[in-house]
Structures are given as structure tokens and as C-alpha cells.
Amino acid sequence: MEEGDALPTALRPAGAMRALLQKSPPAYLPAKLRARVLFYVEERPNWDGVVTVDGAGVHHWIHVSAGEAISMMGCLTPRLIADLGGAETPDMTALSDTLSRPERLAAQLRSAQVAGDAAAITGHLVGAELAAAKVYWLGQEVVLLGQGPYTEALSSQGVFVTTP
Description:
It is built from seven helices and nine strands, in the order ββββαβββαααααβαβ.
């Protein structure tokens, strides 16, 4: 991984665009994705919230305040969906089940796999990610930069979601 700027830090770097790094818990956002987040935030002065962006099979959550990246988290959900043969759209019942009981993820995935239910696979994986990322979306405005199963999933939890 390339070198980068440690969080918290301004989204607009003083010099060349570099990756964002977080020590604890470890997280990494490549420079090209940092640039996408920066472009969105600079178009909206004084905006605070959470920006999500996909890259190389990772879904990133970045908490932004006053033009700074405060914290971030990356999840392998897109890669797992692809590797396990999930669907483009999540089954919302599966999502809700795993969001409520993320400790059952492995068993729920196996059941969905045996049943041949690709939408349930996606629903369970996205539900587990939402459970892990709750601190990022609960009570926040969330911006989704990119494609994926997150708009409907977050909206079902009462989250105000923007997809520019």
C-alpha cells in the first residue's frame, strides 16, 4: 500500500493527493478514492456527514466534518458478494435478520447457499456490514458514491441517503 496521510486530516492535501490511513482500527483509502470524496465535499461547503465509496472490492465509510476526514472503515462486502455468488439486489428479510443478529452470519450464508438464494446472500452480507458500520450511519446523512446494494438497505433503516 502506498504511503498516505494519517487521520484525522484535511481532505484537500497540502501537496500531491495521497491515500488516507487510519491506525486504529486499521483502514486505508487509496488516493483516487480520496479525490472522489474531496470532489463531492468541496461542491458542498460546510457539509458534514458520511461518504461511502467503492473501490477494488472494498466498501469504504468516511466520516467527514469541516472538510476533514475524521475516521473511516473499509468492508470487504462487495468482494464477498462476488465471491459467494450474491445478487445485485439484497433480500431485505435476510438483511434485517443479519442486521439484528450479525453473530449468525456464517450459518445464514450457508443456508442461503444451500437454498441457492443469491439475494439472501447479498442481504446477509450487507446486513452484517450495516451492523458493523452503525456508528457511521446512525443519525447521519450518508452519501453513496458509486453503485451497490446500499441505498435500499440504508433507506430501510430510516437513513437519509444521497446518491449524486
